[in-house]
């Protein structure tokens, strides 16, 4: 009874602001003092702040209005922050008290964070699962702390494929028990991809300008591609993994999903760096943060003198009639990168096959270890281990609609049967390192490349091994 009462209380809190919107107590104007909020990027918003055409409160009110209007259809947001307007008012006060140039580019900007990223506030952190509703995290995630230090407004939690798509192979992209079916705002019948679906959906639908996602295997790049937004997937350790509901500490990474490249770079700049709660990864990776930061590279001629490789096979294997190949070639003409292009990763078909590469073997073992550790660290939680999550899903199937019957929890069941990192798992991990060295890394070194250009998001599944911890 106590658990269900707690769920009811959390639902009341998460919908309190939306009730104010429906009652007309919160303004949702698209234009304020001649400034159009819709499609505005961070630079536009900051200029409007400086010119007194916009306040953070008005910006938050607009986004809350768009969430109330669009979210029942596209399901990009799981929960809104009851303190969002308070945080906006605080930012407005700070802006009045400080001289221009003293505040970060993100100061007063609302941000949605994926629902597997811990926030020590009135918001839940559940990975889209009812099993963690009402749980209490010990502290903000490392990246959230950095965002708060930059002065952002935490607008709420973005939806996702439940448990970051680690529960079952048959879960639809963007679906979770708490969030429902996430839909692509451009084509409702098209996949939004996952698992950071809501982070991309919400930016694409103008329910927020800035969001955070996480990626283990293409989980930011794929939704960004599907929803026509921008994602940056950092090398593991550039951003702290502390406070993230994990899959694999070796591959998990946190990064921005935004409307523009410059917005994504502002967020990246804010969230990278050492974190004592993830010292193992961030201490080493922070050495590679460029002196002067990433913003210095935001210039029109940034690609001048850079050597770009282009991989078409097998990534241009689209159905007959698809516009993607032509659009891709037109893009290459625009960037004047049409020569010396047909590069190929020799072992790409093995890398893309999680069973053949050994990645599936490694991931299920890592999932059990990492998730058990995260759950034990919670201050309050209905579940304390993967085994208890599995049992919860069976016992409280009414909280999951009909998803357990339809989608199952096959990955969880396989992961629970693992016994840690034994000889088989170690062999799989060694093979993944070899595949990376002989594949993507070899392509970059042999061809002296600065970057690789490829259509779609499939290539993210080839280069993620190179950015894993320890590789």
UniProtKB/TrEMBL annotation:
InterPro entries given in the database record: Amidase_dom, AS_sf
Pfam families: Amidase
Record-annotated Amidase domain positions: 59-455
Protein's UniProt name: Amidase C869.01
């Amino acid at each position: 009874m106590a658990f269900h009462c707690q769920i009811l209380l959390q639902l009341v809190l998460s919908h309190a602001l939306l009730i104010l919107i429906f009652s007309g107590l919160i303004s949702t104007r698209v234009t304020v003092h001649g400034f159009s909020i819709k499609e505005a990027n961070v630079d536009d918003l900051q200029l409007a702040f400086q010119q007194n055409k916009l306040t953070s409160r008005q910006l938050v009110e607009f986004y809350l209005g768009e969430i109330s209007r669009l979210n029942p259809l596209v399901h990009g947001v799981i929960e809104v922050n009851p303190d969002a307007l308070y945080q906006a008012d605080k930012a407005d006060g700070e802006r009045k008290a400080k001289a221009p140039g003293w505040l970060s580019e993100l100061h007063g900007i609302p941000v949605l964070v994926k629902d597997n990223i811990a926030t020590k506030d009135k918001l839940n952190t559940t990975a889209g699962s009812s099993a963690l509703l009402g749980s209490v995290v010990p502290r903000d995630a490392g990246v959230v702390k950095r965002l708060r230090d930059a002065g952002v407004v935490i607008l709420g939690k973005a939806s996702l494929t439940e448990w970051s798509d680690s529960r079952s192979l048959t879960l639809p992209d963007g679906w979770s028990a708490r969030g429902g079916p996430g839909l692509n705002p451009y084509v409702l019948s098209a996949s939004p991809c996952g698992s950071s679906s809501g982070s991309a959906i919400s930016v694409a639908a103008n329910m927020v300008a800035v969001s955070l996602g996480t990626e283990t295997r293409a989980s930011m790049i794929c939704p960004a591609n599907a929803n026509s937004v921008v994602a940056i997937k950092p090398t593991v350790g550039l951003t702290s993994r502390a406070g993230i509901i994990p899959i694999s500490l070796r591959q998990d990474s946190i990064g921005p999903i935004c409307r523009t490249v410059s917005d994504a770079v502002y967020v990246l700049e804010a969230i990278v760096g050492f974190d004592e709660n993830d010292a193992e990864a961030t201490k080493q990776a922070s050495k590679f943060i460029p002196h002067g930061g990433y913003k210095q590279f935001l210039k029109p001629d940034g690609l001048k003198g850079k050597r770009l490789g282009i991989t078409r096979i097998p990534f241009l294997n689209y159905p007959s009639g698809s516009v993607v190949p032509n659009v891709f070639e037109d893009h290459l003409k625009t960037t004047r990168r049409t020569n010396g292009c047909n590069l190929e990763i020799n072992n790409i078909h093995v890398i893309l096959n999680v069973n053949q590469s050994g990645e599936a073997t490694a991931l299920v073992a890592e999932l059990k270890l990492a998730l058990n550790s995260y759950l034990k660290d919670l201050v309050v939680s209905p579940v304390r281990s993967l085994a208890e999550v599995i049992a919860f899903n069976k016992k409280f199937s009414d909280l999951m609609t009909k998803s357990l019957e339809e989608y199952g929890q096959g990955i969880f069941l396989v992961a629970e049967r693992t016994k840690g990192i034994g000889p088989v798992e170690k062999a799989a991990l060694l093979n993944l390192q070899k595949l990376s060295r002989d594949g993507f890394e070899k392509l970059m070194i042999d061809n002296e490349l600065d970057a690789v250009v490829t259509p779609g998001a499939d290539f993210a599944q080839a280069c993620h091994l190179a950015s894993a911890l320890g590789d």
